[in-house]
């Protein structure tokens, strides 16, 4: 039995990408409906992540037309069949995570949601959900593909595995950033680095994700958190998120400065949060002997970075890639940290765009004009 509220409209507005030369355009398409194991969310807001830029700019191929947007918060308006034991209800507010585990594959069975093979094969490569079909289509019936849940729309179908209920004290619009920026930050600190109390940390590139790494590393008890970026404006608020020092690597030699701040040792853990060779170099350069470098930045297509072979080997350094987090375990933890005030999700959101302004917002993100995170606010 499907449970729903009566007022779901037949059509909705969505920002559709048809041509990477043209960018996002708002269209009226059919409102999607949830199938087995899924919920329909009325989207309150969708965060604007750098990963979307790789698809919008054409650097990472994705089937088109598509609706992007992969970090949302909103209210459940319909339950598909087969979610009886999830505890999810119509009317409940939720955060939606970008990494939507199938819940059935070998990786999911062992709790490693971030390695879910069907997520990559079906959603990331084909833009569909786990029955091999998209839930989105134009009024004429042409399929429209989904990057994660296709969050840049008024409604989004999300597998029940990828939503976490948010308590009443959570402000839904900024809570949209929990499902990628904060989830990825949590995954990097908790899973990628397995950060321990008292360790020293550097975060290279403090955009939407990097800022969350700064605050979560600080909350996990890092003794020093050194924020590194090329923009003084991006660095300015970092001490408010728990950074103990900031370095503008365009003006200062980051390695020398980190060595000075750490008694000549370098940091135990360096996080890289942009995905270009220069930030990999910085993250490796500031690492202590035996240190762990945790890259979360995604390259614009196939990219390689230089790693000094003998230093890595002789200094027993590790490179520990980290993708998202274990959504089913970690998204509820992230929501809890936000609810408790440990993750400051409200101030990170520096700009609100309407759905019509989504294309303009991503251009500002590409031009590095966004502090923290911008969101598309569906009420505007
Ligand atoms: N691993 C994952 O699960 C995951 C999840 C989300 C995003 N990502 C990736 O993480 C990266 C960051 O995403 P975001 O949304 O935080 O990006 P963003 O655009 O918000 O931030 C990028 C930051 O990089 C800084 N920067 C630019 N050039 C630099 C340089 N040479 N050295 C240091 N800093 C520099 C900018 O000033 C800005 O603060 C992207 O590659 C994105 O695709 C990965
Ligand atoms: Zn993202
Ligand atoms: Zn799976």
Explain what this protein looks like in three dimensions.
With 380 residues, this protein is α/β, with parallel strands linked by helices. The protein folds into 2 domains: 11-180 and 325-377, Medium-chain alcohol dehydrogenases, catalytic domain (Quinone Oxidoreductase, Chain A, domain 1), CATH 3.90.180; 185-319, Rossmann fold (3-Layer(aba) Sandwich), CATH 3.40.50.720. Helices cover 26% and strands 26% of the residues. It contains 12 helices and 19 strands. The protein has helices spanning 50-56, 106-109, 117-126, 172-175, 181-192, 208-219, 232-235, 254-261, 277-285, 309-314, 327-339, 358-366, and strands spanning 3-4, 11-17, 24-30, 38-48, 66-67, 72-79, 93-96, 136-137, 143-146, 155-159, 163-165, 200-204, 224-229, 245-248, 267-272, 287-295, 318-319, 349-353, 373-377. The strands form 3 sheets. Strands 1, 4, 6, 7, 10, 11, 18 and 19 form an 8-stranded mixed β-sheet that branches. A 6-stranded parallel β-sheet has the order 14-13-12-15-16-17, with helices on both faces. Strands 3-2-5-9-8 form a 5-stranded mixed β-sheet, with no helix packed on it. Helix 5 packs across helix 6 (208-219) and helix 5 (181-192) crosses helix 11. The protein is globular and about 65 Å long. The chain starts with a strand and ends with a strand. The model has no long low-confidence stretch (mean pLDDT 97). One zinc ion (ZN) binds at residues 101-102, 104-105, 107-108, 116, 118. It comes from Schaalia turicensis ACS-279-V-Col4. It holds the Pfam family ADH_N. Residues 32-246 form the Cytochrome c domain. This is Cytochrome c domain-containing protein. GO terms for molecular function: electron transfer activity; heme binding; oxidoreductase activity; zinc ion binding.
């Amino acid at each position: 039995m499907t449970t729903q509220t009566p007022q779901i409209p037949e059509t909705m507005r969505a920002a559709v990408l048809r041509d990477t030369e043209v960018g996002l355009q708002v269209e009226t398409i059919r409102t999607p409906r949830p199938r087995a194991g899924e919920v329909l969310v009325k989207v309150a807001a969708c965060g604007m992540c750098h990963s979307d830029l790789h698809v919008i700019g054409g650097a990472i191929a994705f089937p088109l037309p598509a609706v992007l947007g992969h970090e949302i918060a909103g209210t459940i308006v319909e339950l598909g069949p087969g979610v009886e034991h999830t505890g999810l209800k119509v009317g409940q507010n939720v955060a939606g995570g970008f990494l939507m585990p199938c819940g059935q594959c070998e990786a999911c069975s062992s709790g490693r949601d971030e390695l879910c093979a069907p997520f990559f094969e079906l959603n990331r490569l084909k833009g569909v959900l786990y029955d091999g079909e998209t839930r989105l289509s134009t009024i004429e019936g042409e399929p429209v593909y989904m990057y994660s849940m296709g969050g840049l729309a008024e409604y989004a179908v999300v597998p029940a595995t990828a939503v976490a209920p948010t308590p009443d004290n959570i402000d839904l619009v900024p809570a949209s950033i929990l499902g990628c920026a904060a989830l990825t930050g949590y995954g990097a600190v908790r899973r990628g680095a397995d950060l321990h109390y008292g360790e020293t940390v550097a975060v290279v590139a403090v955009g939407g994700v990097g800022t969350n790494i700064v605050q979560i590393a600080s909350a996990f008890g890092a003794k020093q958190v050194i924020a590194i970026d090329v923009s003084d404006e991006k660095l300015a608020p970092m001490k408010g998120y728990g950074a103990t020092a900031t370095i503008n690597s365009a003006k200062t030699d980051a390695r020398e400065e980190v060595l000075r701040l750490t008694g000549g040792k370098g940091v135990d853990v360096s996080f890289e949060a942009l995905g270009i060779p220069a930030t990999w170099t910085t993250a490796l350069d500031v690492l202590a002997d035996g240190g762990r470098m945790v890259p979360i930045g995604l390259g614009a297509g196939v990219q390689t970075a230089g790693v000094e072979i003998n230093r890595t080997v002789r200094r027993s350094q590790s490179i520990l890639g980290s993708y998202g987090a274990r959504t089913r375990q970690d998204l509820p933890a992230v929501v809890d940290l936000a609810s408790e005030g440990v993750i400051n999700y409200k101030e990170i959101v520096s700009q609100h765009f309407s759905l019509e302004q989504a294309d303009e917002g991503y251009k500002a993100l590409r031009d590095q004009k966004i502090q923290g995170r911008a969101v598309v606010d569906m009420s505007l």
